[in-house]
Design brief:
InterPro entries: Ala_racemase/Decarboxylase_C (IPR009006), De-COase2_N (IPR022644), De-COase2_pyr-phos_BS (IPR022653), Orn/DAP/Arg_de-COase (IPR000183), Orn_de-COase (IPR002433), PLP-binding_barrel (IPR029066)
Distance between the termini: 13 Å
Shape: elongated
Cofactor: pyridoxal 5'-phosphate
Largest sheet: 8 strands, mixed
Radius of gyration: 22 Å
Strand content: 15-25%
Protein name: ornithine decarboxylase
Helix content: 25-40%
Oligomer: single chain
Number of domains: 2
Order of helices and strands: HEHEHEHEHEHEEHEEHEHEHEEEEEEE
Structural class: alpha/beta
GO molecular function: ornithine decarboxylase activity
Enzyme class: lyase
Number of strands: 18
Length: about 375
């Protein structure tokens, strides 16, 4: 937590959970990514935190933007980005949304099957397309499913189809899994990308770009390598698989760009047990899965939590949110160790919450308002 966030919370007088984001940390993170991979363009994943303050800052620093919808495209444009700095990276798009993006000037689209290629060809003629391939996501704390991407051997046919329909078969993309703590995870995906480049060339199609995706982590409870380590390791893999003919590359950091910039302040609403002999306490907060902590689902993301009673003896606790929904339980499979002296009314600080919190917050579920967010 930065001194600026600490000072803001010290003087705060209003009620309810709040996310505070320090924009200076976002600036430092962008500069770190730009320095770690100097020949790679940064396409910030808007979905991680689409706040206008974040987008405007990144646009002013020269960032490009990975968007998942027309609304996110409009957000990036409103923040000062030009259309040539925007990628429509969702592989699942309505044809009318592709047309709208094309009207805005967007010319870079993700695909993962021939049907999606045909939609782009009909309403965004001449555009560049890149085909997303599947990755196993080993080593990621939030592995991705098979929802996006195709098997690598299918990608060549998809790109050839795009080429024959008059589109520019631009390259390959992949995602090694969110919160990927192994810098070597990119190696296997780049081997697949290089093979696709070679087979495409044999068919007369010259690919020129590899989208290295996201996956760059932020620090929660476990230590993670620095951005510099990721940059060096990825560059080594590029040289290994592409030799001296390294393609254009882009990255799509989201969590790694804004995660460590935010802290949520939350209040203990209730501390209880389910029986007199229960060794685990239940700690209910005024924020839960529906208030912005959706990534605690399956306990994949375990946030660092600071309390005003740190240093006191600890005991296991189940953490839960305030809503009348039985799914609003965050840490039960592996209870969280919190001070025995924790009481109703105590304010807790949930660190590393700048990404995928406010953007996941429900609109008035059970009457609770969306997560209040402050940018300083």
């Amino acid at each position: 937590m930065t001194d600026r966030i600490r000072e803001f919370l010290r003087t705060r007088t209003d009620d309810g959970p709040v996310l505070v984001v320090d924009l200076d940390v976002v600036r430092d993170n962008y500069n770190a990514f730009a320095k770690a991979l100097p020949d790679t363009r940064v396409f910030y994943a808007v979905k991680a935190n689409p706040a206008p303050e974040v987008l405007s800052l990144l646009a002013s620093l020269g960032s490009c933007f990975d968007t998942a919808s027309v609304a996110e495209i409009e957000m990036a444009l409103a923040a000062g980005a030009t259309a040539d700095r925007i990628s429509y990276g969702n592989t699942i798009k309505k044809e009318r949304d592709i047309a709208r993006a094309y009207q805005y000037g967007v010319r870079l689209f993700a695909v993962d099957c021939q049907a999606e290629v045909e939609k782009v060809a009909r309403v965004a003629p001449g555009s560049k397309v890149f085909c997303r391939i599947l990755c196993d996501g080993a080593g990621a704390e939030w592995p991705l499913s098979r929802k996006f991407g195709c098997e690598p051997q299918m990608a060549v046919d998809v790109l050839e189809h795009a080429h024959r329909l008059g589109l520019s078969a631009h390259g390959i993309s992949f995602h090694v899994g969110s919160q990927q703590r192994d810098p070597k995870a990119w190696d296997k995906a780049l081997a697949s990308a290089a093979a696709i480049f070679r087979e495409s060339a044999d068919r007369g199609i010259s690919l020129s770009m590899v989208n290295l995706g996201g996956g760059f982590p932020t620090k929660y409870l476990k230590k993670v390598p620095g951005v510099k380590t990721y940059g060096a390791t990825i560059f080594q893999a590029l040289r290994k698989h592409f030799g001296n003919r390294i393609p254009d590359t882009i990255i799509e950091p989201g969590r790694g760009m804004v995660g460590n910039a935010g802290v949520i302040e939350t209040e203990v609403v209730l501390v209880s047990k389910k029986s007199e002999t229960d060794k685990v306490r239940w700690v209910y907060l005024d924020i839960g899965k529906f208030g912005g902590l959706a990534e605690t689902m399956d306990e994949s993301i375990r946030y660092a939590i600071k309390t005003p009673r740190d240093g006191a003896p600890l005991e296991p606790c189940v953490l839960a949110g305030p809503t009348c929904d039985s799914a609003d339980v965050m840490y039960e499979k592996e209870p969280y160790l919190l001070p025995v002296s924790l009481e109703i009314g105590d304010k807790l600080l949930i660190e590393g919450t700048g990404a995928y919190t406010a953007t996941y917050s429900a609109v008035a579920f059970n009457g609770f308002p969306p997560l209040k967010t402050i940018h300083i």
